[in-house]
Each structure stands twice: as structure tokens, then as C-alpha cells.
Design a protein that fits this description.
single chain, alpha/beta, five-stranded parallel beta sheet, 12 strands, binds NADPH dihydro-nicotinamide-adenine-dinucleotide phosphate, binds oxalic acid
């Protein structure tokens, strides 16, 4: 019997506990903070935003498994034990993010907010509608989530460009990479979709300088931002400034430097901003617990875990 710890902050741990117990009755499931038992028993820690220093208290850990796709919070723990850190890669999570991206790209492309406003005024007025193939969507981060969103957007006709750290070859997607690839990527992008991890290299990347480089004179006649990566990527004041001066026509934000978004943030009431509470791709135990347990099973059978975080680059 292997002892597995669940340490979850900010989400309700009950669903995870029930699912782990149902799927892995052969394992000993412990739950932080009330039912940890002897810390020396714990071999695997399955976590979401555990307090810094907590994991250092488990001397016999074999791996840490993040219950989310992004592991930036974990890596910020200066006492993080030196064992593999595994993140979630799961088709359910990926498809949820793809839905979110496609939904909001289409909202801008089809000018749905304009038609909503007209409806409130009982105005019957048709506007010209560009074809999707004239509209360029730029995906920052061509990883698991960015690739899936790029492929779906392509299937519904958009021109898709992408940007990543290392070179990528995705059929039909014009791919840019690295510092030199950033500006030509941005110049084409009318709708910028941000699906980057938060790392020392990406923090604050969505700033005024970057927003000024977006393609504003394409088929949509304006530039739009969708950030569902991490709040640390964006500078809220710069997004507001870009909206005020008109260099940005709209922003959809799922993530923020401070979460929950403080009540006094001017983003809440801005007419060109759409806010969602960091749920673009909700981590649902019903489907994701299996992915986590499969990685534990791999390690127990002597195989290296998949989807490990490279601590040197931060994702
Ligand atoms: P991946 O690790 O699969 O992909 C990350 C992508 O970002 C890769 O293409 C990588 O480049 C690129 N990248 C990283 N650093 C840089 C850099 N410095 N310059 C250019 N490109 C860079 O992650 P996922 O796609 O699975 O997830 C992305 C992020 O989405 C997560 O880290 C998390 O923060 C966020 N997320 C948000 C959720 C939400 O509900 N809002 C839910 C789930 C995840 P390369 O391919 O060259 O390595
Ligand atoms: C994740 C998230 O990283 O929910 O999975 O943000």
C-alpha cells in the first residue's frame, strides 16, 4: 500500500478525495491538513497551491504531482523537495481550454458584444462580417493547450500564427519562436491568445509595448487580447492604458496578478473587458484524478513520470 497525500488550497478537496479513494482503493489516501498521519509514510504529494514549506516536511517523497497544468506556484516554494514535479496533461482539461479560446475568439470575430448592445436598444442593424480566413489569431505558447486551440481555430477557418520558446512545426500554423520571432508574430496577430506559463522569462510580457505591436489594421480593424495563461504574464495597468487609448479594442481575462481580482480593480467595470474567475479550464477531479493516478502507477512500475517540469526553465 502506497501513501498518497492530497494537499489542496483554494479548491474544495472533497471531490478529489472521493475520486482518489474510488479509483485507488489499494492506496492509502491521506488529506492535508487533518489526516496526514506520519509524514514519513507519504510517497506522493498531489497538490494545488500548498503553502510554501509544506512539502519539505515529507522526507520520503518520490514525486510531487500538480493537480493543475501550471506549476509556477509550486516552483515558487524555496524549500520544494528535489523530486520530480509532474503536471496535469489531460484531454478534458485541454478541451475545456480550447472551448474557452474558441468561444472568445468567435465573440470578437462575430462582433457579438456589438449585437448584444444593439439588442438592448432594439436596433436591427447589420454590420459587414469578414471571413475567418482574413482574421489572424496569434497564440502565445504552442504547448499542449496552445496547440489544441490553434488546431481548432484552424478547422473553423482562422489564419493562425503561433509563438513558442523553441521552434515548432504545426501544419498550417505559421510558427515563430524566441525573442527574434516575437515582433513579427505580434505584428500579424489581431486576436492575441496568451497560453504561456508564468516563468522568470514570461512575467509581465503582456505590457503596453507588446500591445502596441499587435496588428490593428487587419480584417477586424482592431486588436484584441485573451489571456488564459497566468496573471503574472500581464500588466493590468498597461492593458487598461491600451484600452483607453484605443490600441486595444477589447480584452478577455481569466487570470490576474492578484486572484481573486480585487474588488476595487477598474478592470471589473470596464466596458471593453470580459472577466472570468480563473476557470477557463477547470481542473475537475472526475476526469483528472485518473491522469494523476496513472503517473503514480508509472513511477511505481519503475518508469519515469510523463509531463515533468523542468525547474531550470520554470515550466
Ligand atoms: P506547455 O508547457 O505544454 O506549453 C507552454 C508553451 O509556452 C510552450 O509552447 C512553450 O514553448 C511556451 N513558452 C514557455 N516559455 C516561453 C518563453 N519564454 N517564450 C516563448 N514561449 C514560451 O503548457 P500548457 O499548454 O499545458 O499550459 C500553458 C499554461 O496555461 C500553464 O502553464 C498554465 O499557466 C495555464 N493554464 C491556465 C488554466 C486556466 O484555467 N486559466 C488551466 C490550465 C493551464 P516550447 O514549446 O518551446 O517549450
Ligand atoms: C491550471 C490552472 O494550471 O487551473 O491547471 O490554472
Amino acid at each position: 500500500m502506497t501513501s498518497i497525500l492530497l494537499a489542496i488550497m483554494g479548491w474544495d478537496p472533497k471531490g478529489w478525495e472521493q475520486r482518489f479513494r474510488a479509483l485507488a482503493p489499494q492506496h492509502d489516501i491521506r488529506v492535508w491538513p487533518d489526516a496526514v498521519g506520519d509524514p514519513a509514510d507519504i510517497r506522493y504529494a498531489c497538490v494545488w497551491k500548498p503553502p510554501a514549506g509544506l512539502l519539505a516536511g515529507f522526507p520520503n517523497l518520490k514525486a510531487i504531482l500538480s493537480l493543475g497544468a501550471g506549476a509556477d506556484d509550486l516552483l515558487a516554494d524555496p524549500e520544494l523537495p528535489d523530486v520530480p514535479v509532474v503536471r496535469i496533461v489531460d484531454p478534458d482539461l485541454t478541451m475545456r481550454m480550447t472551448e474557452y479560446v474558441v468561444l472568445h475568439v468567435l465573440m470578437y470575430h462575430r462582433r457579438q458584444r456589438l449585437y448584444d448592445a444593439q439588442q438592448r436598444e432594439r436596433r436591427w442593424l447589420e454590420h459587414s462580417q469578414p471571413v475567418a480566413s482574413e482574421v489572424v489569431v496569434g497564440i502565445m505558447g504552442l504547448g499542449v493547450l496552445g496547440t489544441s486551440a490553434a488546431q481548432m481555430l484552424q478547422r473553423i477557418g482562422f489564419k493562425v500564427v503561433g509563438w513558442s520558446r523553441t521552434p515548432k512545426a504545426l501544419p498550417g500554423v505559421e510558427a515563430f519562436h524566441g525573442a527574434r520571432g516575437l515582433e513579427p508574430f505580434l505584428r500579424q496577430s489581431e486576436i492575441l491568445v496568451c497560453l504561456l506559463p508564468a516563468t522568470p522569462a514570461t512575467r509581465g510580457i503582456v505590457n503596453l509595448d507588446l500591445l502596441h505591436k499587435l496588428g490593428r489594421h487587419g480584417a477586424l480593424q482592431g486588436a484584441y487580447l485573451i489571456n488564459a495563461g497566468r496573471g503574472a504574464l500581464q500588466v493590468d495597468a498597461d492593458i487598461l492604458a491600451a484600452l483607453e487609448e484605443g490600441s486595444l479594442a477589447g480584452a478577455v481575462l481569466d487570470v490576474f496578478p492578484t486572484e481573486p481580482l480585487p474588488i476595487e480593480s477598474p478592470l471589473w467595470g470596464h466596458p471593453k473587458v470580459t472577466i472570468t474567475p480563473h476557470n477557463a479550464a477547470q481542473a475537475v477531479p472526475q476526469t483528472l484524478a485518473m491522469s494523476v493516478l496513472q503517473q503514480i502507477d508509472r513511477i511505481e512500475r519503475g518508469h519515469p513520470p510523463e509531463n515533468t517540469i523542468d525547474r531550470a526553465i520554470g515550466y
